[in-house]
Amino acid sequence: MSTKILVIEDNIDVRENLEELLQLSGYKVSTAENGKDGINKALEVIPDLILCDIMMPELDGYGVLRILSNNVTTMNIPFIFLTAKAEKDDFRKGMGLGADDYITKPFDDVDLLDTIELRLKKSERLKSSFGETSQGLQRFFDESKAQKEFEKLLENREIRRYSKKDNI
Q1: Does 81 reside within a domain?
Q2: Residue 34: inside a domain
Q3: How far apart (Å, rounded) are the C-alpha atoms in residues 80 and 52?
Q4: In this structure, what are the phi and psi dihedrals at residue 56, rounded to the nearest 5 degrees?
Q5: What is the chain's alpha carbon radius of gyration, rounded to the nearest angstrom?
Q6: What is the mean pLDDT of residues 28-55?
Q7: What is the extent of the structural domain holding 108?
Q8: What angle do CA 41, 106, 8 make, to 5 degrees?
Q9: What are phi and psi of 160, to 5 degrees?
Q10: Per the domain annotation, does 164 fall within a domain?
């Protein structure tokens, strides 16, 4: 089965170029011309990776990421912003929302394909380390809860300093 990539891009030329590049690289590609259609397509196709523009009609890329990140079916799909927004604040906002990567236009085809491969491999490693069974999922949740509890302990800790000859 080939890897499925969803491209959400409102510019038809960019969308078609990406589709052709990805198909030539062996990926099965689905496309959407705006954020609203992109969400519907993501829920229908369940892609292995999503490439998404930020500035789009109906629903921007930030909104797409927010919605897909809160859906159990799509929350773990690697998400890459592919955008002309190159300001530091834009990058920070995208990554802060949970994007896996942020590539600015114009982009180099080789860099894009390398980034896609890297994100797909990382996603596959995560899936295989926890398995796709209910036990693997439960183990993931248990480890996540343990990490959060550990961080809580660290927040409220009291630091004490001792000299060499102090009794403890």
Answers
A1: yes
A2: yes
A3: 6
A4: -145, 155
A5: 20
A6: 94
A7: 4-128
A8: 5
A9: -120, 140
A10: no
Higher pLDDT, 7 or 130: 7
User: Is residue 22 in a domain?
Assistant: yes
Q: Is 78 exposed, middle or buried (0-12, 13-18, 19+ CB in 10 A)?
A: buried
Place of tokens 């705006």: 34
**Separation CA 117–CA 126 (nearest Å):** 14
Instruction: With CA atoms as reference, report the closest residue to 61 among 10, 25, 16, 12.
Output: 10
Q: Which two tokens stand for residue 118?
A: 């890297």
Which structure tokens are listed for 130? 């926890």
pLDDT in tens, 115-151: 999 999 888 887 776 655 556 656 665 666 666 666 6
Q: Determine the distance from the C-alpha atom of residue 61 to the mean position of all C-alpha atoms in its chain, rounded to a whole number.
A: 12
Domains: count for the chain:
1
Nearest to 67 by CA among 40, 90, 49: 40
d(CA 152, CA 140): 19
Residue 41 maps to which CATH number? 3.40.50.2300
